[in-house]
Design goal:
about 325 residues; alpha/beta; nine-stranded mixed β-sheet; about 40% helix; about 15% strand; globular
Amino acid sequence: MSPRRPALPGAPPAPARVLTVRSADGAPLHVEVHGPEGDRRAPAVVLVHGWTCSTAFWAEQIRALAADHRVIAYDQRGHGRSPAHPACGTGALADDLEAVLEATLAPGERAVIAGHSMGGMTVMAAADRPALRARAAAVLLCSTGSSRLVASAKVLPLRAGRARTWLTRRILLSRAPLGPVTPLSLRVLKYGITGPGSAPHVVEACARIVHACPRAVRHAWARVLDRVQLDDGVRRLSVPTEVLVGAADRLTPPLHARALAAALPHCLGVTELPGIGHMTPVEAPEQVTGRIRALAATHLPAGAHTSAGVPTSAVHAEESA
């Protein structure tokens, strides 16, 4: 049985449609479509969450955008309501994104794709994929990096070097259960993944999402992130791309955002949010939503969208109850 999705402040409305999309290797993916499903004027937005998260992570963006956008969010394999699968790797992430794009967008329809952390890496991994090239009108990369993630992480108050990298790897790849959300775990999580000024309810919301991720899934994908190498994918991500990061991000510090901006062929700019940590869509929902909305307004002009609804090519999508 899949874990219950934890609630965030301002939880999103019930989706207009729920699908199970089959990836290239048969892995089932839980997909939600929010907003005006049949309105051809509604621009499409695809939200891709990160490690140990779920569609609940995007609650504020879904709630704000669904009034006039068709918002598509899915659980990465093993996360949220998508069952675990033995295949773990950046290639599988790219396969999954391709499958979701083909199953939810109408023929010829394009979308703005926003990826946070591992979700941003998903977009980088799919840079050369035909579906991404055909379907992505613009991309927002939030709080992410393309390589050397463990060595650059600042989740431990130590000087950079071998000792910090070794200890960080031990922590991130730990198989230990996270257990219940407690005052101690909230303090630890706040230091590691949110900004120092984060409100208690924001930290708790992030904690409940992260703690809901099965530890075997958390460990399997931590191993992928430990060795991720997507620098070539960044250089091949030719669609207009904006980069956003929290200035207090300890997991993917701003040096990653600056490196992405320097390597992207069509970078629209990089924004650093003062005082914000790694969980940018939850910590700074208005700023993240505003960037997504602006990208859609610029790159998906009104009236340029094909009629939405169920794509005729979505042979791997199944309606879910």
